[in-house]
Amino acid sequence: MTILRSNRLSGRKALAVLLDPDKIGQRALGDLLDRTTEYPVDFFLVGGSLVTDYVHKEVIAAIRRQSDTPIILFPGNPLHIESSADAVLFLSLISGRNPEFLIGQHVIAAPLLKRSGLEILPTGYMLVDSGAQTTVSYISGTMPIPHDKPSVAACTAMAGEMLGLKLMYLDAGSGARRAVSTDMIAAVRAAVDLPIIVGGGIRSGEKAYEAFKAGTDMIVVGNGIEEDPDLLPQLSTVVREFNQSIVRI
Ligand code: 1GP
């Protein structure tokens, strides 16, 4: 995924679609994949914090049948490792203080990951309060960073970068009512050189535009794209316009 690093250097923006194997039905997945042939995306993220049906393999196989887009696992625990993907977000939940999600689960997953052949993407994962408790906050037993504390997010990201993490993911949580604020994104952008991923509650082209403008390198959108067929074309337009303006410079 050196592409994420080179995008960061060139200023190119990227769009990732999150597919939660627990939520998406076969038909909805097929429809969504069809739409991405017309409106291509940069990555598929596959995962969720609570996956009760272990169907990662089937979801990945379905994507492979219809698309060449790289697939990144977004695991909630080591049971979600699936070697047929291309890469995995090796998430350290640095907004929290639960050692299990900072290092414990990683020790369990390490030998599996080493054998898997997946590209490992060491990622500082920051949960940001969205106004309601999220599944990931509950499952991980951690408190998110308050929505209106950009400086806490900035210092957390700085520490993560110093610890050697390669990506920063600011997540308001799947289906969040309130997306991560532009102030917080801008503060993290000013604090670290790493590629920044932002997700949770992005439901309009305007929100995506604001997130990119504040310094996000890649947005992750799940619920919004499944619920609103017009969102993918809108996001695609926003990304294209950003990237065209870079080429012109
Ligand atoms: C959640 O960032 C992702 O981890 C995507 O969230 O489903 O709200 O787009 P949404």
Describe the structure.
The radius of gyration is 17 Å and the shape is globular. The chain has an eight-stranded parallel barrel with strand order 1-2-3-4-5-6-7-8, surrounded by seven helices. Helices cover 45% and strands 17% of the residues. The model has no long low-confidence stretch (mean pLDDT 94). Helix 2 links the parallel strand 1 (14-19) and strand 2 (43-47). With 249 residues, it is an alpha/beta fold. The protein has one domain (2-242): FMN-linked oxidoreductases (TIM Barrel), CATH 3.20.20. Bound molecules: SN-glycerol-1-phosphate (1GP).
Question: Gist?
Answer:
The protein has 249 residues and is an alpha/beta fold. It has ten helices and eight strands.
Any idea of the CATH class? Alpha Beta
Shape: globular
**Ligand identities:** SN-glycerol-1-phosphate
- What is the second-level CATH architecture? Alpha-Beta Barrel
The CATH superfamily bears the name FMN-linked oxidoreductases
- Give the strand line-up of the largest sheet: 1-2-3-4-5-6-7-8
Given the structure, what is the number of helices? Answer: 10
Mean pLDDT: 94
Instruction: Enumerate the spans where pLDDT stays under 50 for 5 or more consecutive residues.
Output: none
Features of the shown structure:
single chain; 249 residues; alpha/beta; TIM Barrel; 45% helix; 17% strand; binds SN-glycerol-1-phosphate
Explain the layout of strands and helices.
Elements: H1 2-10, E1 14-19, H2 26-38, E2 43-47, H3 56-66, E3 71-74, E4 87-92, H4 99-116, E5 119-127, H5 135-140, H6 150-162, E6 167-171, H7 182-191, E7 196-199, H8 205-214, E8 218-221, H9 223-227, H10 231-248
Parallel strand pairs: 1-2, 1-8, 2-3, 3-4, 4-5, 5-6, 6-7, 7-8
Helix pairs in contact: 2-3, 6-7, 7-8, 8-10
This protein binds SN-glycerol-1-phosphate (1GP).
